[in-house]
Design a protein that fits this description.
The complex is a heterodimer of chains A (155) and B (129).
Chain A (H helix, E strand, L loop, with lengths): L6 H20 L5 E2 L10 E10 L3 E8 H12 L6 H22 L6 E3 L3 E5 L12 E7 L2 E9 L4
Antiparallel strand pairs in A: 1-6, 2-3, 2-4, 2-5, 3-7, 6-7
Chain B lengths: L2 E6 L3 H13 L4 E7 L2 H10 L4 E4 L8 H9 L9 E5 L4 H9 L4 E4 L4 H17 L1
Parallel strand pairs in B: 1-2, 1-3, 3-4, 4-5
Helix pairs in contact in B: 2-3
The chains are: A alpha+beta (155), B alpha/beta (129).
Chain lengths: 155, 129
């Protein structure tokens, strides 16, 4: 049975992992923490993936349109990445951020990551997030990138 | 001297990133080969000789751990230097893979410098041996 993990540990692990990936693999510095995006709709790409093992749960990542293009360009070396390449890069980033977060959580055991699923959000709609999700939001230029993780109660 | 490098990862973006990062670091690779899982990599190794393998763990069909196990069980490939490139930084996983003969373990996210250092170290050990 896994030891209880504090929400502070999870938040710190998630935050450090997102920042590390953006800095070391996308060569992008964030401007700082941000408030979660408000009601104004911004087209974006979201990636979700589930994990299992010592703990089970889900991870999600949300990048607004322009930032996703710039991040995908930095990661892939392609000046004008198309939608498919952006989705491929965002999926890989979600995979890395999730794995890094789980690895940083104290006393976390072996884990497996499912394949990420990327979705373009091109019109306003309400997305239900589980209330116990731990999330981080960072400002990059005029846009806000977000990531979150939650552990299932049966884990 | 240039080396033949095999990159095994189910993400095309990640394979391209590793290749581009190695190229930018000045590492002298003669040829790059790519495979999207362990089965594709084993098929490729039936036809091509490589000097070093960089492999992910989480892959469909044949994952990185099983791939490494198969290489270790084959007399022709058991001495090949292998570097695991993975998000999984748990000590249990790393210890297990090192027991299987993995030469290096690079945790994502990584810097270009760390990638080159791991590759050069693995090849130095190979040539020193």
């Amino acid at each position: 049975m896994q030891a209880e993990v504090s929400i502070q540990d999870v938040h710190l692990s998630l935050s450090q992992s997102v920042l590390d990936v953006l800095e070391s693999m996308c060569f992008t510095m964030v401007d700082g923490p941000a408030e979660p995006p408000g009601e104004d709709f911004v087209p974006r790409i979201e990636v979700e993936l589930s994990f299992s093992g010592a703990r089970r749960g889900d991870f999600w990542l949300s990048f607004p349109g322009q930032t996703s293009v710039e991040i995908a360009a930095a990661f892939s070396g392609s000046e004008c990445p198309d939608d498919e390449k952006i989705a491929d890069v965002m999926s890989e980033l979600a995979n890395i951020m999730c794995g890094a977060t789980l690895s940083r959580i104290p006393e976390n055991g072996l884990f497996d990551l499912d394949s990420p699923v990327a979705t373009w959000i091109v019109e306003q709609r309400s997305i239900q997030r589980l209330p116990q999700a731990c999330r981080v939001d960072f400002q990059i230029g005029p846009e806000v990138v977000s990531a979150g993780i939650h552990f299932r109660a049966d884990a | 001297m240039s080396f033949r490098v095999l990159i095994v990862d189910d993400s095309h973006a990640m394979r391209a990133f590793i290749r581009r990062t190695l190229e930018a670091s000045g590492f002298e690779a003669g040829d790059y080969f790519e495979a999207s899982d362990g089965i594709e990599a084993l098929d490729l190794l039936d036809r091509e000789w490589v000097d070093i393998i960089l492999t992910d763990i989480n892959m469909p069909r044949l994952n990185g751990e099983e791939f490494v196990r198969k290489l270790a069980a084959n007399g022709l490939t058991k001495a090949l230097p292998i570097i695991v490139v993975s998000t999984d930084a748990t000590a249990t996983r790393m210890d297990h893979l090192r027991e299987l003969g993995v030469r290096g373990y690079l945790i994502k996210p990584f810097t270009p410098e760390a990638l080159r250092e791991q590759v050069e170290h693995a090849l130095e050990v190979q040539h020193a041996g």
